[in-house]
Amino acid sequence: MLNGRQHGGVSVTIATSLEDACAALAVEPCPLVLSGGTDLMVEVNRGSRRVGDIVVVNRVPELVGWRRKGDQLRLGAAVTFAEICGSELESLVPALAQAARTVGSPQIRNVATLGGNIATASPAGDSIPVLAALDAVLELRSAEATREVSLRDFITGVKQTCLLPGELIEAVRVPVLDGPQEFCKVGTRNAMVISVASLAILANRGSRRITVGLGSVSPAPLRASDAEDHISPHINWDGGAIPDEATIAHFARLVAGAANPIDDHRSSALYRTHAIRVLARRALSRVLGRLSAT
Amino acid sequence: MSADTYSLKVNGTDRQVTESLPGESLLRVLRERLGFHGSKNACEEGECGSCTVVVNGQTVCSCLVLAESVTGYEITTIEGVADDDGLSDVQQAFIDTGAVQCGFCTPGLVMSVGALLDSVPDPDELAVREAISGNLCRCTGYGRIIEAVSQTVDGRRDDGSRS
Ligand SMILES: Cc1cc2nc3c(=O)[nH]c(=O)nc-3n(C[C@H](O)[C@H](O)[C@H](O)COP(=O)(O)OP(=O)(O)OC[C@H]3O[C@@H](n4cnc5c(N)ncnc54)[C@H](O)[C@@H]3O)c2cc1C
Ligand code: FES
Ligand code: FES
After folding, report:
1. Could you say which of B20, B25, B61 has the minimum Cβ distance to residue A107?
2. Which of B51, B94, B106 to mutate to test the pocket of ligand 3 (most atoms within 8 A of CB)?
3. How far, in Å, are A26, A90, A290, B23, B80 from residue A96 at the CA level?
């Protein structure tokens, strides 16, 4: 442990091993986990989050960096978005890299982590639709136990997760797929924008499936399963012909039909549904174009 | 207030933080505990970039960094970009091109531009715009800031070809 200090009864632990992090979290009341701080510190600065004991996890070796094992990637929870969009991950999980590149600004991407994005469980979290489409699995760990939970079971509602007191996200596992991927996001401007609607479309030649994850249009991670079922058999997976316009239009309607958006200060439900339909069509056309080209 | 202290390495020198409140940001510690007033505080929510400093070679919004989480790291603030009372080439270019108006955004922008040019010596305009996308300037309209970057790039190229 690098240091553990007391401030008026509040301790800050900078964990340098997984063991230390779990031990520091295994107390009552459970300390706050802090990684990059880009969500948590906003609340602390505003005074809307009472500062209790803090365990800083972004130096823990098991949470830092990523590795490939066969066709699986293990991304440490403290991998930053800058690391995701400026590395080989761009070709291994292109949609995740595209999403990473749209997060905040360089200053935010340099510290904001994948694990923090997932644990915050905001419907607008940009990694969420991609991880949903990838069927990502989270490795959770506490002092007593480890468990694996799918991303879709982990996020149970708006800013709600099944993370237990004393538990942290250690890593995220996703497959390396054979096929093009697209992530699209709509917001009010290009930089520094929280998404109004977003979507990830992934092609998987291995399983001959298209998968579709939606963002900002539901309380929890969402897949457009009917649209996936509709489009997948229409694709010539061995290259060549692509589905006709009517089939693509129907796919886009089915994707929009899966959305379950709300009206809020960023947009209306009506606009969000419309945006999803446009994005679905656009992203699918790009994916199909690249599928037939390769 | 804390009875304990910790140290931060700012502009190459270890500084003791002897008093701090729980959850204090690096920005507050720099400004209010250590007397580095160059980094500005405008939003404290990561939106404006006026608090930008460089930690281990990477720009961050110091308002969103828990001060103690960067113990042992190299922190560079605007006070550390030039020797003594001099100006860095980036600072000089900002002045020459009229990229400084009210000046509130300038320290943050100088940090972002400096970090960009350290890793990409001759960026295209898109790369420049992306690199400063987290720094808001309400006065200049950014045109002169882009010009300041070009001037710095040209100056470094000339220096390079002379030496
Ligand atoms: C200006 C600005 C712009 C932003 N833009 C975007 C954007 O475009 N897209 C987007 O998706 N997000 C955006 N965000 C939100 C934020 O940057 C991301 O959600 C980021 O991924 C959070 O990661 P962090 O490491 O900074 O989290 P932290 O603030 O450190 O933590 C966030 C939450 O996750 C928990 N946590 C962190 N790590 C772990 C772990 N390993 N295990 C368990 N719990 C953990 C913390 O306890 C806390 O509750 C923006 C934020 C700001 C301030
Ligand atoms: S004060 Fe830090 S980004 Fe505005
Ligand atoms: S010069 Fe005034 S905000 Fe940029």
Report:
1. B61
2. B106
3. 32, 8, 17, 31, 36
